[in-house]
Amino acid sequence: MSSILVLRFDQSCGKIRPFTGQRNSLEMGLSQPILVFDSGIGGLSVLAEIRKRLPHHDYCYVFDNARLPYGELEEQELVSGCVSLISQLVERTHAAIVVVACNTASTVVLPALRAKLHIPVVGVVPAIKPAALLSKSKRIGLLATPGTVKRHYTHELISQFADDCHVELFGCSELVMMAEQKIATGQLDIARLTQILSPVVDANLDVLVLGCTHFPMLRDELQQVFGQGVTLLDSGEAIAKRVDALLAHGKNVSHNSEYERNSSLMQGFYTKAEISEGLAATLADCGFSTLERITTINTK
Q1: Is 212 in the active site?
Q2: Is 60 a residue of the active site?
Q3: Which end of the chain is more exposed for a tag (fewer CB within 10 A), N or C?
Q4: Which of the listed CATH numbers 3.20.20.70, 3.10.180.10, 3.40.50.1860, 2.40.110.10 matches domain 2-124+237-294?
């Protein structure tokens, strides 16, 4: 069961207002969209990279904010909820490809999701390999959620691609919520951020992998804390290249001139009872015309 909320930005008052006019069949107008999924707004950083490469495609962005943060969920709860929600939206929107733009979910959800769906599924892999290649001091770090940091998959990546490096792992869910707050309100407690990151600063790294898609939302503030001596890496650009390659290879979405219209359609889905006006404004600024709450058996 779900409820539709169509939004427009009211220039006269600078606020988002519900749109009561005709919807122009926005959802019906979607043409095999690229479905991007995350627990919250972090996946917008990945969506932005994909849109740079594929600006004419339609997009569905799904954020399971009722269960945020994912890093604190038990593995089976995480898997069942994600598979249920994503499968529901793929069937409804006829998506061409799914991007799980969440590091925590990608470490455990992908096998079950790929077994369920018959379209390509792209996950997020922490940028351990490029970090190891880039590092001059061979001291690198991974900043992620506790769930990503403790997963066997993450440790395998380090063993495979960074065995010549000293690798420090830092797990923090609070940064996820700080990124959410920044996007919703425009505010960030830089003193608290500095306090949280003090162990990372003390580790004397030259490359730090942002192993959560929320963290690029804090890139400017993170760079301010670490200084220019630390290079910050994320996986957004690599994911965009992979999506482009899969769509071109599988011809899942038309690439002819008729399809390449001037603008794409953007539709958002969320699972929490409501979202703030600040977040709605941010999503409208990103190009979303429709936001819809969608519920599943796993939604609180």
Answers
A1: yes
A2: no
A3: N
A4: 3.40.50.1860
